[in-house]
Amino acid sequence: MKRYILRRLLQMAPTVLGVVVLTFVLFHMVGGSPASLALGKNASARALEEFDEQRGFNKPLLIGRWSPTRAYGGGGFDRDAGPWRGLEGVRHLPAAGRDPGRISLEAGREVAAPLAFGLRPDTEHQWRLRYRLPAGRALVRIESAQAEGAVRSRQTHVLPASARWRTASIPVAPGRAPAGLRTVLRAEGAGLELRSIELRRRNAHWLDTQFVFYLRQLARLDFGVSNFTNQRVSRMLRDGLGPSLCLTVPIFLVSLAVSVSLALVCAYFRNRWLDRSIVILAVGLMSVNYLVWIIFGQYYLAFRRGWFPIWGFESWTCLLLPVLIGVVSGLGENARFYRTLMLDELYRDYVRTAMAKGASPGRVLFVHVLKNAMIPILTHVVIAIPFLYTGSLLLEGFFGIPGLGSMGINAVNAADVDVIRALVLIGSILYVAANLMTDLCYALVDPRVKLG
Question: CA–CA separation, 305 vs 307, rounded Å?
Fold first, then answer.
C-alpha cells in the first residue's frame, strides 16, 4: 500500500506541475495586466509599479536579464509623441514613405526624458533607443540629484551621427541620491530623431522571473496579498474554509444518504407506483432552477413563516435553511443517478443466481447490489469532494455566509488576482489528489481491485 501510494504520488507530480504551469499561464500571460485590472485605468504609474513589484509582475515571464518599468510609459511614436507630447523643443513627425512615425528634438536645446516617477537609485536601468542624426552629435546626460535639487553627479554618453536608423543602449548606473536619477538629451549640429525609446530595469539574474517568483511563493505556501482587503491570501483561505465546510459537508452527507436510500427504495419497488412517483418527483426537482429554491426559502420559509434565520452566520441555526435548500436542489439528479446504478446491478447474472438460491429481496438488495454498486458510487462521491472546498457561491452570497464561495465572488468583482489564482490552484490540486483517493477506495470496497 505505501509503495503504491508513493508511486502514484510520483506519477501525479507531472500533473501537479502542469496545473501550476497552466495557472501561471492563465493569470500571468493571458489575462493582460493584473495591475490595471485590479487598480483600474486611472491608477497612477507608481501605484501600478508597486503592485507589480509586490507580486513579481515587473519581472520577465520565463527568462531574461531586463524588464520594462512603468517609470517610462513610452515606446514607438507611430501615432503620437506619447509622454513627450507638449515638451518644448520636441516635435512629432508622422510616418512618411519608408520613414516611420518619430519625434524630433530641436538642436541646441536640452530635453529631459519624461518619467512618471523618479528612478530608484539602487537599481540599474538602461535606455534603449532607435535614433537617426544626420550631422553633429547628441549627448545623453544621466544626472543624479540630491533631495534639495542640486546635481550631485553626471554621466555623459555621446551618440555619434548616423544617416540611417541606429540602435543605442545607454546604461543608467545606480546611485545613492534619494531624489533619483534624471536623463537629459541634447542634440548638437542637427535635430535628433527618435523612432522609439524604451527604459528597462536590470534584474538580479537571468532566472529572476515571474515564474520563479511564483514557484517560490508556492514553496512557502504564500499565495500573495489581496489588493481588495490588504490581507494575506493564506489567512483569508483559513478564515473562509471553516464556514464553507460547515455548509457544504452537511449538504454533501445528507444528500448522499437520502439519494442512495431513495435509489434503494426505487430498486426494491421497481416498476411500481412508489418507484414511478419517486422518479416523477426527481424529475420535478431537477426542473426547478437553483435560484427559485433560494428565493422561495428566503421569502416564504424564513421571512413569511419565520422558521429559519434569513441572514448571518452567528449560530448553527443559520445553516439549516441553506443546507435544506442545497439538499433539495440536488436531490433529484442524485436520486436518478443512483437509481440507474441500482437497477443496472439488479439485472446482472449474480442477482438472478442469488434469487434462484432463495435469497430474500432485501438481502439481495442490501448485501449484493449495494456492495457491487459501490465502485461507481465512490467515483461519483470522491470526485465531488474537492468541490466542497470552494463552497457554494450562491448559497453563501444570498445567506451572508463568509466562506470561500462568497470570497470568490468578491474577488471576481474586485479583480482580486491573488485570491482567484489561489482558489483555482488549490481546487485543481485537490481534484488531482481525489483521483488517488478514488483508487484507494476501490481497493477497500472491492477485493478484485489490487494495488499493484
Answer: 5
Burial of 344 (0-12, 13-18, 19+ CB in 10 A): middle
Q: What is the pLDDT of residues 103-159, one digit of tens each?
A: 999 988 899 889 888 887 778 889 999 999 988 899 888 877 655 555 555 688 899
CA dihedral 348, 349, 352, 355 (to 10 degrees): -100
Whether the CB-CB separation of 138 and 158 falls below 8 Å is answered with yes
Query: What is the predicted pLDDT for the residue at 142?
Result: 82
Domains of the chain and CATH, by start: 82-202 (2.60.120.260), 233-445 (1.10.3720.10)
- C-alpha grid cell, residue 317: 441555526
Question: Cα(90)–Cα(77) distance, rounded to whole angstroms?
Answer: 12
What is the enclosing helix (H) or strand (E) of 144?
Answer: strand 125-145
31 has a pLDDT exceeding 70: no
The total number of residues shown for the chain amounts to 452
CA dihedral sign of residues 50, 53, 55, 61? positive
| Ramachandran assignment for 358, one of left (phi > 0), alpha (psi -120 to 50 degrees), beta (any other) | left
Residue 434 near residue 383, CB atoms below 8 Å: yes
297-303 mean pLDDT: 87
pLDDT of residue 452: 57
Residue 221 main-chain phi, psi, to 5 deg: 55, 40
Rounded CA gap, 124 and 201, in Å? 6
Task: Report residue 108: phi and psi, to 5°.
Answer: 85, 0
Rounded to two decimals, what is the model's pTM?
A: 0.76
Contact criterion met (CB below 8 Å) for 230 and 223: no
Grid coordinates representing 319 are 445553516
d(CA 191, CA 105): 5
| Adjacent-strand bridge partners of 225 | 232
User: What one-character-per-residue DSSP string does 221-239 give?
Assistant: T---B-TTT-SBHHHHHHH
Burial class of residue 185, CB neighbours in 10 A (0-12, 13-18, 19+): buried
DSSP string covering 22-81: HHHHIIIIIS--HHHHHH-TT--HHHHHHHHHHHTTTS-SSS-SEEE-TT----B-SSS-
* CA atoms lying within 13 Å on the CB side of residue 377: 24
**Under 8 Å CB-to-CB from 292, ≥6 apart: which residues?**
none
Is residue 232 within 8 Å of 225, Cβ to Cβ? yes
Cell 523612432 sits on residue: 195
